[in-house]
Structure formats: structure tokens, C-alpha cells
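HUMAN: Mind sharing a backbone?

ASSISTANT:
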Amino acid sequence: MSAFLRAAADNDAVFEKESPMNPHAPRPAEFWDDLERMVARRVEAALHDRPAKRDALIEYLRHVEEMARTECDRRQTVQIIASGRSLLGDRRAVGPEEGPFTRA
């Protein structure tokens, strides 16, 4: 797992990997690979928690899904996040209304 995802996973921070020279630099493929694995692990662990403890993770996944829908070019990543939210009981629509993967 990359260092920036490890830090985010450790403290529940939102993924914000930006280059100081170019704040709009695309995230590397490794970021999305790590994100998919981390989401799967967190969702699996949350399935054994009380439903009330899942709320923070659901909110976090909504944010990450919106980010993936606008920045990631892999449908698989968006689907993993959306499926994780669904498994946790979240049915809210997320993301931009127009753009790539708006119907994922």
C-alpha cells in the first residue's frame, strides 16, 4: 500500500494526494489499486460492526466515490466503492449528475 493511502487509512483522513507544484496532477494507478483494496477491507470489517458505527464509513465512501467518479478512468474502482456502500445499507445517489460513470 502506498504511503499516502496508509496514512489516510490510519487516521480516516480523506485522500488528498496533490503535488505542491501541480495541485491538479492525476493520481497514479497505484493510488486507485490501493484504494480498491482498502475499501474492500474496511467494508468487510464494518459488516461485523453495529450499524451505528457504519455511518462514518458510509459518509467517507460517498466522498471517495464522488472523487473516483470525477478523477478515475476505471469503472471497476467506482463499482467497488458503490458496492461497498450498498453492502453497508447506503442507497443514496452519489457523484456528479453528468460525467463518466454516472450510471455505475
